[in-house]
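hi! just following up on the protien thing from before. the input was this:
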Amino acid sequence: MPHSSTIALITGANKGIGLETARQLAASGITVLLGCRDESRARSALDGLRAHGRDAHVVTLDVTSAASITAAAARIGEEFGRLDILINNAGVMLHGRDGPLSTTGDDALRETFETNFFGLAAVTRAMLPLLRRSQAGRIVNVSSILGSVAEHADPNSTIHSAKFLGYDASKAAVNMLTNHLAHELRDTPIKVNAAHPGWVKTDMGGEGADLDLETGARTSVRLATLPESGPSGGYYHLESHLRW
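and the predicted 3d structure came back as:
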């Protein structure tokens, strides 16, 4: 199958929002690379996409492993020549181990940051040379409204009492990275934005969440396919710009 004119890599793409994001992008004709730690676990996701005639491939990628990141970037460069879209979707929330500072251990904080921030930064750095080969590169960092300091500080906010120090702080750091990287790339065609999917019915969000997967993926898809006139350096949920 010939590859499309647009190549997208989604980390953590074997299930949940990552897989739904891949489905929506592939349905529009984009070649999707499913970045997954375990290739065998991604096989059913890949087969499901290909059964619908989508151009999809698995790229073994553990965002906490420097060797894995280097190998993934090399493979994408050799096989596809460039990257047009990077969606940093992989993330963790350590239920039962994350909460107030007094009860959240250093190991939980480090483990959360290792995936949510340091892994995201390392993947992005490794993929930047490939994105610079694109005529219109797009980077989407999947964040969360729980990373908004303004929302946490507002007693009237719906998340005012939702305090998970490791997760919240890691997503606040992702927001800062988004702002800094957009500034660094301001004179290039590459656009960088942060996406809040919403509270979505996933393994992380739980069955009590109010959004389905299709809606949860829409923000990332929109930011990944922005036109030349689109924004960079923003923090969005669907069409709304969020408070940092």
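The helical segments are 16-27, 43-51, 66-80, 106-131, 149-153, 165-184, 213-224.
The radius of gyration is 17 Å.
cheers
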